[in-house]
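Notes from hallway chat w/ T.B., transcribed later so I don't forget. T.B. wanted the structure written out for a chain they're using in a teaching module, and asked if we could keep both sequence and structure tokens in one place. Agreed to drop them here.
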Amino acid sequence: MHRYTVELRIVGENFDPDEVTRELGLMPTRMARKGQAKVEGAASKWTANMWGFEVLPSGGDGWSSLEDGVASLLHVFSSLHDRLHVYSMSNKICVWCGHFTSSFDGGPTLSPTLLRSLGSFGVPLVLDTYCERTTEDTEPSEGLLARG
């Protein structure tokens, strides 16, 4: 099984995350300031400011198609492209995609139309892959139970 998360991220020291929220008119799904603890009570801290906006399918915690997730994100930000460009001058902007898989086969496929749209949008796409365990991986099979 494959599941994808899709988020636009702005990372850098030269912006105020609250200003990005006001300027874009979008509430971030993730926001951090340089020096803030990554996890409450943890020693590791953010080394830069970060503003992130994740798109999710209705009623889901991830996309079954990376193409659908990226297209949805591009739709949200299509009218905000010029405003985003201001932040790209001295910060990093990317479309960050999490690829969560419980198998070693398959993976994302992106159409030429979406690739052209991404190219026009003008920010890198980052694809991070994570292996997930399924309940089948952790539970003994019926055959093993029957023999035991």
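Follow-up for T.B.: The chain has six helices and five strands. Might be a good example for the class.
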